[in-house]
Amino acid sequence: MPQPSSIIADGTITRQPPPFAYFRKVWAIVAKDIAAELRTKEMLSAMFVFSLLVIFIFNFAFDLRTDNANTLAPGVLWVAIAFAGMLGLGRSFITERDRGSLEGLLLAPVDRSAIYLGKFLGNVLFISVVEVVILPLFIVFFNQPLGIIVPLVGVVILGTIGFAGVGTLFSAMVIHTRARDVLLPIMLFPVVVPVLLAAVRLTAGILDKLPFEDVQNWLGLLVAFDLIFLAVSYMMFEYVVEE
Q1: Run of H or E residues at 7
Q2: Nearest to 33 by CA among 84, 82, 99, 86
Q3: How confident is the model at residue 63, as a pLDDT?
Q4: Where are the extended beta strands (E) located within 9-65?
């Protein structure tokens, strides 16, 4: 089947790749990151250990009774997710730079937005793998019913998308700075405060079994910021990596 073509201003006919070719390039970047992580397991190991330590320390540091467990539990869960995710985001582009493959990735015949989407999906995947371990431990240690798992997973997915969306952009932004390990959290956390705040509020509503009407505004805020952060990060990524 012939590829679609377009005519630009000077009359030149150019060939445009089919839509699936773009997503094939995105998947190639995701697959590369997965293969690299499976060989070393450095990032996932650090994220697992850090998140487990947060859950354990908070669980044993406080006298968690029924009347105060639901007050502390949402914050503990999102502290574990946010800081473990920060470790993954920090390694997203640093690994490329340390291996000398960042320049090759930028010189490849791939649209910059495809690089962003590939890195974003990889970060969401790695954070989600850690969350698969965190959530069962969270339910066990904080004595939560299994019935909350479905709505809780939905909130965690929405929060992870917003966090990883803007985190991927900032990870690329600080890659060439010497203090990137310090600069990334300083830049990222003030921006993702709305996402984390809405996610914590929604998690608290789930644990307290509040009616949907009481938390729907927080859900709308979380979805809105996810869309805004993804759109802005998608459009700005090309300009960030060119600097």
Answers
A1: strand 5-7
A2: 99
A3: 60
A4: 13-15
